[in-house]
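Sequence in, structure out.
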Amino acid sequence: MGEKKRKAAAEAEFIFGKKNYKWLFIGLAFIVIGFILMSGGGSDDPNAFDPSIFSWRRIRLAPTLVLIGFGIQVYAILLNPNKVSKK
């Protein structure tokens, strides 16, 4: 009888719920979009200077999106999936 109780108590349960995974993927999308916006701007000639590396998109927007994505990841990890919302 004790073995059955132990097996019932040791039933596999996921730590994260559906809401957690939804927020994790949203955060991952923000991070990926940020890194895509940071990429590029190379020059074919190494002796030529390309000022597009200092564009607003690469200096301000892309790092902001990456940081927002990491913030969403932290929120998704700390989110309690079992909490019932009051409507």
